[in-house]
Structure formats: structure tokens, C-alpha cells
Design a protein that fits this description.
heterodimer; A: alpha/beta; eight-stranded parallel beta barrel; four-stranded antiparallel β-sheet; globular; B: 252 residues; alpha/beta; seven-stranded antiparallel β-sheet; seven-stranded mixed β-sheet; 19% helix
Amino acid sequence: MTLEVVIRDVKFPNPVLAASGTFGFGWEFLAVANRLGGVVTKGLTIAPRAGNPPPRIVETASGVVNSVGLENPGVEVFKREILPRLQRVKCPVIVNLAAGKEEEFCELTETLEQTPVAGLELNLSCPNVKEGGVVFGQDALQVEKITRAVRKRTGKLLIVKLTANFVDPADTAKAAEAAGADAVSLINTLFALVLDQEGKPLLGGRTGGLSGPAIKPFALFCVERVARAVKIPVIGMGGIKTGQDAFEFICAGAHLIQVGTANLVKPDGALEVVKELRRMARTRGWQSWDDIRGKAGEGRFS
Amino acid sequence: MINWSMGQVVEVARVGAEIYSVWISERKISRKVKPGQFIGVKVPERDDLLLRRPFSVADVKGGKMRIVFRVVGAGTAKLAHSKKGDRWDIIGPLGKPAPLVQNKSVVVCGGGVGAAPLFYLTRVLKEKNRVVAVLGARRAAELVMVSEFRQLGVKVYLTTEDGSKGIRGLVTEALEPVIKVMEKPVVYACGPEGMLKALCPLSRKAKVWAFFEERMGCGTGVCYGCALPKKDGGYLRLCQDGPVVSLDEVVL
């Protein structure tokens, strides 16, 4: 079967995307990027951001807690230096946008509208910044307002990245859908605190976001819940590192999946998922993604 | 270009208090890796220990490379218990090579297990420079690769904090008189952050290249996890811009 997934007018050669913040801007490992379904860039803001003080990353049991804080060179450097390099990436490139104000999201959107990027992912879920991020994502009204404002300014594929921190993502997903989003993606990292031997916060940013296999069952729960709540496609992520993991997210209702933390372990971590998924499709005789997508709901107790 | 490779453990030796040396047979990376660069090792059979452990390369020889490390947690403990023939999943070379000088008076200054990456560097530098080594540790059992340094034919000064070997005191204190008699010395230092911090005043008078250690996510520059503050603002990424950094460019 063809692994292709089409959302709106964007053709993803396969359902596996590299998640924001785990694959640079997409051109760093071109040979890998060109065989993925898509790449989501590191979070981009209008002004350059230095990010949070170190330490920024720490391993926990089957997981990683990070507090990078959206370090990025800003949209001007992105347009001037990074965008030309992205032309060499064959798969669709989605730019992850972060901002502390609605107007900044609008400005970023307008700045990128005439560029060849395939789509935008609104980061309404970063746990490591003081303004915006998860604060927007916890409030369905804000999600709707920002999504609507951005929707007015772009004809590109518009994805809203949701949080599952202290909010029902089914509610915020419905808000994004009502405001015209083409898809929602979830989950972003979960609130996390890591203490050192003296009982002091280990991370320079004090708190961080947990990712990796440790969060997979919860992410799967959230993805299934959201997939039942909205009609627009859902992009699932959270601890995916094998073809089986990706398969499970698709069974839970995801159209696309993103691989994040596994990219840190190996630059071609997402590619492994593509290969395994392709093998599964062949050996299990799937005819199309519809054969498995959302089928988890037909199981027990539903 | 980063290589991914399966290496085979050919020798594991305990070389000090909780310090282990491992020789790995591996063709691709060991042929390319330069002094100052590091490798990312996946802890075998422990999927719960997700991330790779970054190790600077202490030496290379005919398709083999050596790392020397202290056991600090579950991952390094597991690696230290490796047996001959075990296979390790490795990526590398990572980071930038240490800048190499010529026709200079060079001092390599190692604190504890920090002496290890300086060994490979010293072996390369001594071809075209006059090199002396100042190696220190808390106690004698934490000094590493001393005999190897001596076999290279470089003058080695030893210090321990408890006086159990060499001069009693800090390695940075022992460094001062050594440098004083040299003309335009170049220092390469590797050790704990406190040691590198103590070298900051020196970096205003002499060139000091510092080998940094930091928690890393990817080791390849994409996750922005291993940040070190720069003097002129912002951060550098140690895995990509380092791990060897000019000490006068950063804030400790």
C-alpha cells in the first residue's frame, strides 16, 4: 500500500514526522529528512531567543526532562539563512511557531506566508517559557482566538499543537477545530520537576517538560480521546520510538505521528519508525491506513 | 558526517577508584575521530536509560579507540561491567576537534579522569610542540594514565589534594609555577567545572583551551540541551561548538 497521507493540500509521503525541537531545523540530517513523512522545525519566535540557563536536559526513568526554553535565532535569520537550506529538504516542512502574544503569532504567520514552507504548527503548549506556550494552550478561549487570528492570515496547512497539562485536550482541540485549524497535534511534554541530591531543582529553568517512552500510555490516551472529539486529523506524539508505537497511535485515531525524543538517541530515529511501519504494512496486508486508523475504539469496554 | 556503528569491547580495565578504561574495536569512527572529539554510547540492554552517554576519546590505535570514565550512575556502572566481546551501539565522531598548535610551549592540565582526553591530544601535539603535563586528583587512586603520559616522554607533574601522591594541593596551583617559566604557553585543560573556573584568571594572560563536560541530549546539535553561556551573550552548544572551548569566551 502507499504510505502517503494527505491533509488539506499537503502530501506527506509517509505518516512519520520529526517533532519540533528534536531535529533542528530539518537540514542538519538531510539524508534522513528526505525519507521522512515530514519535518517540524525547532520552535521559531520573532526575536532571537537565548533560551534557558543550563543544565537544560536530564534523563529520567525511560524519559527525558528538558528546559531548553525555545532557543532559536529568530524569524529574520530563519528567512535569510535557514530557509534557503530547507529548499533541499524533499518532504513537507512544517514551521513550529512560538509567541507570547497573539499579535506575534499573526506577524510570524504573515512573514512566512510567501515562503515555500508547507505548513505552520502553532505551539500553544511549550512548558518552558514564561509567556504564551502552555498558558495559551490551557485556555480553550485563547486557543480559539489565536487559531482564528492566524487562520485569517494563512492559506497554509495550519496545525495547533496542544498540551495535556492540567487541561482536557478534547476541549482545546474542539476550540482549534472551531477556529479553522486543519489539524491538531499532541501531546507536548508534560510538566516535570527534577531535584538533585540536595533536593534542589536540577534544571536551570527550574522546571521542565517530560518526554520519551515514559509518557507514551498517557499520550495514547489523550490522542484517542481527542480523535473521538474532533473531525479534523489528529497528529499523535509522545514516546514513539518503534513501528509498533506508531501503529498504536494510528489505531488510536492519529493520521500522522511525530517522533521526538527518539531522534536524540539516533539522528535517524524517526527513519527507523518509517521502516518498521512499512514492514508492518506489508506483512500484515493493510490496504490503506483506514484499515487500522481509529480501530482501537472498537476494542473492549467501548 | 556522523557515523553510526556497532563497536566491540576488546578490553575493560579498572584503572582507578571507580574509574574504568575500555578499548573498543570499531573501524569507522576510530579512524576519523580527532583529539577533543567524543562519541555517544548507548547503554546496552537498558532501554530505560534512553540517552547516549558522551565520552571523549582518550586514544586511538589501529581500528580501536579507548575511553576512560568514572562511574557516576546506572549507565556508566553498566558500561563498566562490560565484558570482552560485548557490542556497543556508538555514534561519532561528535563535536569539533581541539585546535592544534605548532612550535609552542604547551601544558596539558588534567583534573582526575579529565586527564584521559588530554592523552590523545598530547600524543598528537608532542610531534610539533614542547609539551608538559600537570595532572591532579583528589587522591592517588583517582590519577589516571600517568604511566602512559610518561611513556610519551613528556615531563609529568603530579598533584593530589590529600598529598597521597606528588605535590599536595590543587592541580591549578601546581600549574602556576610551571607556566611562569614558559614563554607564551598554551594550556589545554580538562577537569571538573571548579577546576576550569579556577583557570579563568589565567585565561586572561595565556591561551587556555578548556574541555567541557555537560549533560547532553543528542550530542549532534539539534536539541540545544548542552548550553554554556558566552561572554558576549547567548549560549554555545557544547556538542557542536565544543566540547573544547577557548576559556576566555565563556562565563563560568
